[in-house]
């Protein structure tokens, strides 16, 4: 089946003004600004204020994307939300956002693919628009990871932050649109990066809470190795499927997890620094939100012009990984 093309017609993002710096973390755990910056590239992260929810911040990002697209919430046919930090197990965060923005004509669902959740959602949305099922789809990545971090564990506490990014996808008006759609996963590696508690395997008990089973557990060094391998694999597959050479890429936006992982992809594709978008220093790892936040920022800063070729690459728990080349 030949798919029609879909294209990004609006972007938006939101992060709370509340910021937690590396120096703040020095007062909480045995760490240093020097260690965090040197090993990860992170300098600060945004933390959603108590009392506000994942769907609150995602709704704000969604409204900004709709405004940018010149559409009303009622024009949206479907909402996909990449998140591993939903408001609650159910209803989905997508349904909560739908109610908050008034997108009453839409179907809404979450995409559970960890840090690849936004890119998975974008590719699903593209195929639904491409096959003519829907016209306008809101794809969101939104996370409140600060509420799933063990703030006494220096190996994970320094890495994560909160935020939301959104895009509106609509039918392409010509050349623009997704040129490739690469998604993969490997469930055998799930327990290298996961939250053990809170699901039906390990419901909340006093003991599970005392043991911090409801927070992120990660084998950092192992995850790092797989992240480098699979992000490079995804980037190469995404390029090949789009029939685009690395040197034709105008901007690379990868999931913002670690500067050293991003550099590995940059070196493999032989891209100069100015073609690699980085905002990891400002946000930390915001999981599914990192790519749409970066995309919105890149667009607002004029780093993406009409006709540019953009390469998006994600990696996350599951494991999951994905890539797409987009003609902007
Ligand atoms: C977490 C990560 C930054 C750690 O960097 P690393 O170079 O692998 O560091 P190691 O885990 O080998 O630890 C090196 C030392 O630093 C220490 N350390 C760990 N966290 C620290 C911190 N926040 N501050 C200071 N020291 C720390 C370790 O205890 C270890 O000490 P030791 O040598 O005395 O045992 C890195 O493994 C990583 O980025 N992994 C991928 C994480 C990721 O991206 N996850 C999400 C994927 S979507």
Describe the structure.
This protein is globular. With 328 residues, the chain is of the alpha+beta class. The longest helix has 23 residues, at 220-242. It has helices at residues 22-26, 33-40, 54-69, 93-101, 117-130, 154-157, 206-210, 220-242, 259-269, 280-283, 290-300; strands at residues 6-14, 19-21, 44-46, 78-82, 107-111, 137-144, 162-171, 177-178, 182-185, 193-194, 217-218, 251-254, 309-316, 320-327. The protein folds into two domains: 6-174, Peroxisomal Thiolase, Chain A, domain 1, CATH 3.40.47; 182-327, Thiolase/Chalcone synthase (Peroxisomal Thiolase, Chain A, domain 1, 3-Layer(aba) Sandwich). The structure holds coenzyme A. Residues 31, 35-36, 39-40, 115, 154-155, 158, 218, 220-221, 223-224, 227, 257-258, 285, 315-316 line the site of coenzyme A. Residues 31, 35-36, 39-40, 115, 154-155, 158, 218, 220-221, 223-224, 227, 257-258, 285, 315-316 line the site of coenzyme A (COA).
Shape: globular
Major β-sheet profile:
5 strands, mixed
**Rg:** 19 Å
Stretches with pLDDT under 50, minimum 5 residues: none
What binds here, in terms of ligands, is: coenzyme A
Structural class of the secondary elements?
alpha+beta
CATH class category of the largest domain: Alpha Beta
* β-sheet strand percentage: 15-25%
Order of helices and strands: EEHHEHEHEHEHEEEEHEHEHHHEE
Instruction: Tell me how many strands there are.
Output: 14
